TrEMBL record:
GO terms for cellular component: plasma membrane. It comes from Arabis nemorensis. It is a multi-pass membrane protein. This is PGG domain-containing protein. The keyword Ribosomal protein does not apply. PANTHER family: PGG DOMAIN-CONTAINING PROTEIN, PROTEIN PHOSPHATASE 1 REGULATORY SUBUNIT. Keywords: ANK repeat, Membrane, Repeat, Transmembrane, Transmembrane helix. Residues 27-117 form the PGG domain. It is found in: Membrane. Its main location: membrane. The chain crosses the membrane at residues 34-52, 94-117.
Length: 124
């Protein structure tokens, strides 16, 4: 312990610096809220758009063939409005992976948007 009190001054200077640092961190967290909102909105919009307009497009009309003598009516391979990739057997797995990932990303981003809008504090 020093007689002049320099040790106490150094302690006060270092604690003041730390308090200023923590205050700046709090501001950074509040600014991050806006960035999270922008990113979540873009991801939600993109995943929604992928499901509304799937890659490969949608069938414009029913793809029906006239039934043969054993069946009673026409057999429809694809209905109008369903995704083209859903009916191609070679790409069905990729299409299902896209649907699952788009659903998960949409759900997660919408949850994040709702949490940010509700006023959840990021600091604690």
């Amino acid at each position: 312990m020093e007689v002049n009190g320099r040790e106490d001054d150094q302690y006060e200077e270092s604690s003041e610096w730390f308090v200023k640092y923590l205050n700046r961190q709090g501001d950074w967290l509040e600014k991050t809220r806006g960035n999270l909102m922008v990113a979540a909105t873009v991801i939600a919009g993109m995943s929604f758009q992928v499901m509304v307009n799937p890659p490969g497009g949608v069938w414009q009309s029913d793809n029906c063939t006239s039934g043969n003598q054993t069946s009673t009516g026409p057999v429809c391979k694809a209905k109008a409005g369903t995704a083209v990739l859903e009916h191609e057997s070679s790409k069905r797995g990729l299409y299902l992976g896209m649907v699952i990932s788009s659903t998960v990303s949409f759900s997660a981003s919408m949850s994040l948007i709702l949490l940010v809008i509700s006023g959840l504090r990021l600091r604690y």
